[in-house]
Amino acid sequence: MVSVNQLSVEFGGFTLFSDVTFLVNPKDKIGLAGKNGAGKSTLLKILAGVQTPSSGTLSCPKDIKVGYLPQHMKHNDTGTVWDEVEKAFGQLKKLEDDIAKLNIELAERTDYESEHYLDLIHQLSDKNDRISMLGGANYAADIEVTLKGLGFERNDFNRPTSEFSGGWRMRVQLARILLQKPDLFLLDEPTNHLDIESIQWFEDFLKNYGGAVVLVSHDRAFLDNITKRTIEIEMGKIYDYKASYSKYVELRKERKEQQMAAFRNQQKMIEDTEKFIERFRYQATKAVQVQSRIKQLSKVDRIEVDPSDNASLRIKFPPAPHSGVITLQGNQVSKSYGKHQVLNQIDFTIERGEKVAFIGRNGEGKTTMARMIMEEVDYTGELKLGHQVKIGYFAQNQADLLDESLSVLETIDHVAVGDIRLKMRDLLGAFMFSGETVEKKVSVLSGGERTRLAMVKLLLEPVNFLILDEPTNHLDIRSKELLKQAVKDFDGTVVVVSHDREFLDGLVDKVYEFRNKKMKEHLGGIYEFLARKKLESLREMELQKPSGKTLPQELSDQGKKTASKLSYEERKEISKQVKKVQQRVKKCEDKIAKLEKEVAKMDIEMQDPVKAADTDFIKTYQKANTALETEMKNWEQYHVELEQAEEEKKKMD
């Protein structure tokens, strides 16, 4: 489908990569691997046609449709969310307008036998056929399913995109690309602004997509779940593996070991041969053997070991100063932005040494809580830090807050104090800023380099409470693994706001889930939490125990009497009422079970693009979900009535 031939890219005398050749087949799911700065994003830009290589060619059919999502986007959209996404169907909208004009013209004509009239009929038929091929009028259902999958609520559809953050506007563009159904997806770090639920929906979409995907991502779990082929860029060359990322890592290690073994064996053979030649070079009786060995040596195809870039971060947080047992305590904490309430009356406690994850959908208050702890935003209630607790904070946009006019060294020089100033260059070297690179301006740094520089600032002062808000965005997989180990080794308290399952796995021992204005504690790791909540299939949540609801009036009145004063008839009436509520609960549970089976079946069918584009199916799907939600609410109400009725019955017995 797409053929890349001997591509080379040079920047001011520096060769990024050279003689790169590979083929993208129609249904390939390819992960581009490599360190920050290896050239992954540049290669995607060349495939998308937005950058020209220094040399080499790119060949693909003229009618191929490419969808490209860059890592950093400039937003100039001005319409509503729906309007911007609907642009994906520009061709279809034009056909609809053309058909409307043709219908008007045909209605006004009476020359039914004329050649021109027949030509209009032919045009109308042709355009109707093309609309059917493109999905017809069902695109509205496609838009709704895609937007909801990416985390938008129905009431967001008609809001101007200017009201949303950059991350949400990126989702709008992603939805638009998905709905264009390109032959080739080019995705550069698409999960950076997605929450766990949206990532899992996106995973399912890409796994079942019929076209080709070339993906750059530092989310190892995301890569493993989607890709079946990995192209690694290292030291200006590429290595192509027909394997997922984790399998590629194993194969790459095996290849290096085999190369080194073969190289050592050959070097030993060459050394032995050269020693023989040198020893018997001047002996006439050995002349034939010597000449034979010289010829043999000249014909040896020398084994070369693939060059490796072994530079990596050396992260170690300073020892945490001693603090009290309680690190942070929240009492009745609430936060609203105008009329929009984000958090409502939250109580929680984080103790010394705990490593905690804040997770939940975007907009549920994770970053808001981090900023409240840092006293960057106001709130009601109390957030109380423990004795001698000192915070180190890495904000989600920390890398973007750096002064672009300063150099790397100046950035650290402006904040370093005391003895650490004598070790600034050593510290920068540990984060892969050495030699002339410390003089580079922040404005020319890549996203990964900026993140590393922001991390250096975090290490300048010993703290005992780390708050890390999306610290892995823009870090390559190797750097993320080293950061994860450093956080695991840190002997203080840690709160991590992240959607990266692989990063959180084995790191945290408690999860706080942000949902419905609340913050719920779950003990255990991230995959235990996901298993309990069944987020992998996006069908959750567990039923919440209702509270604060009242009994029917007749039961409430009877409950005021003591058991000793109840007559036989009154006791009989309460028992009858209990049975009636039990029957309601049972009937409701049967309906829920039936509806859950229907919805689960339709969830699977929804993966079929034909089904997902069927308006009648979408209506049935929505109707079933609405009915399930209604029955869930009924079940809650009936269960409250049953619990209170049974309590009254116990008082009688």
From TrEMBL:
Transmembrane segments: none annotated. The keyword Signal does not apply. Residues 542-567 are annotated as: Disordered. Residues 85-112, 571-648 form a coiled coil. One of its GO terms (molecular function) is ATP hydrolysis activity. InterPro entries: AAA+_ATPase, ABC_tran_Xtn, ABC_transporter-like_ATP-bd, ABC_transporter-like_CS, ABCF_ATPase, P-loop_NTPase, Val-tRNA_synth_C_sf. The keyword DNA repair does not apply. Residues 2-260, 328-541 form the ABC transporter domain. It holds the Pfam family ABC_tran_Xtn. Keywords: ATP-binding, Coiled coil, Nucleotide-binding, Repeat. PANTHER family: ABC TRANSPORTER ATP-BINDING SUBUNIT, DRUG RESISTANCE ABC TRANSPORTER,ATP-BINDING PROTEIN. Belongs to the ABC transporter superfamily. ABCF family. YbiT subfamily. This is Probable ATP-binding protein YbiT.
